[in-house]
Fold:
Amino acid sequence: MCLGIPGKVTEIYSEPYIEDLKEHAVLMGKVDFGGIHKKVCLEHVPDVKVGEYVVVHVGFALSRIDENEAKRVFDFLREMDDLSSLETIS
Structure:
């Protein structure tokens, strides 16, 4: 099972894939995951814009999603963490 986490794109840039071959740039971005910022490959969503949300799995943005869907996922993950604190250790 794969888990994709939504994040908000805050910056977009190209990063050289191989230093000697500047023409082979990779589309990258900085993505905000609820206050934690990570570098993410944006090659699968080349039309994404700063301020939009993407679903990220192992450092790759796989698709764009709207802000409401991203909020629903964050709320669900927050709820799951709250539920885990109710579990008893046997």
